[in-house]
Amino acid sequence: MKSLLLKSLYVLAALRYPRIRPDLRYFVRDNYFARLNQIRFWRADFLTRAPYKVIRFYGEFDQEIRYVLPFAYWHFLNGTLKQTIASKNTKPFYFFSPDHVEKYEKRVWEAGYGNYSIPNMTHAPHFDFSKWVRVPFKAHYQNNVFVYDKPLLIIANKYNIEWDKPPINFLDIPALDRLLSGLKSRYQVIYNRPLGEQIVHDNSEIMDLGEHAWLRTTHPDVLLMNDLFDQHRQVVENFNHLQLMVYANCNHFISMHGGTAALASCFGGTNILLSYPGGGFEHDFNEYETLFPALSGARILHAKSRDELLRIVEKTY
After folding, report:
1. Distance between CA atoms of residues 142 and 17, nearest Å
2. In this structure, are residues 259 and 251 in contact, taking their beta carbons and an 8 Å threshold?
3. Which of 37, 45, 165, 278 is most buried, judging by how many CB atoms fall within 10 Å of its CB?
4. What's the pLDDT score for residue 30?
5. How confident is the model at residue 203 (pLDDT cuts 50, 70, 90)?
6. What residue ranges do the domains of the chain occupy?
7. Does the predicted model carry a pTM greater than 0.85?
8. Does CATH number 2.60.40 belong to domain 140-316?
């Protein structure tokens, strides 16, 4: 029965979106199936409305930010959230959960596929927001600790294996130098690229860009998130808690494709993100104009190359 329904939904996806590549229609099919799966919870969600929903996820961080957390927050507001189970150091993201369990030591990217328990779980041309509510990270985590004389600007970089290939979406040292030389006089820049031991890994191996020592020498007025973590261990529970507190005080972001860009899109303001064409299905489904702005109402400016990002930053910031 399930197999037949999935085949039928694939045909429906092909009929409704004939211009979408055949291999990408599987994403549409899976989202259709996931939404249909919600019908069986109608009574519990809208009639009895007692706490029953246990949400378990240990897949990619990007999916957790985009799909899982807004679904869990909807259940919290609906009065039906019972428990959330996720990877270690995720409690700050689930601050609203009545019972959050940090169970998993490692993220498994395959865990997000074939997971039909959440209405939106994969890429799609349109999303179902009926059980999806933006999480108020900014309002919850704004603070008086990370306040500076100049407005904050966060550069959220990454340098890791992407799709089993060498790094694609990242800012190299020459690009960082050009950005910082033009920005640091007007902004208190905070540079964020987590070290391997500070976040939970998935299949994307973190590599050494060698920029932290260079930043301390060449741009000593730029603050490093890693250093802030060492300085404020008495205030923050873990590195994720630190990121949420710092990001909540910021309205200017530069970020990279993936979870880095998704997190930076959760705090309003403007997020200029780098995502090369061909390096992710967000392009095919136009998600930088649909889902990413929905995460917080942020203004999303998508750069398709480092040079384009530099031009947008110079024009915008």
Report:
1. 42
2. no
3. 45
4. 94
5. low
6. 2-134, 140-316
7. yes
8. no
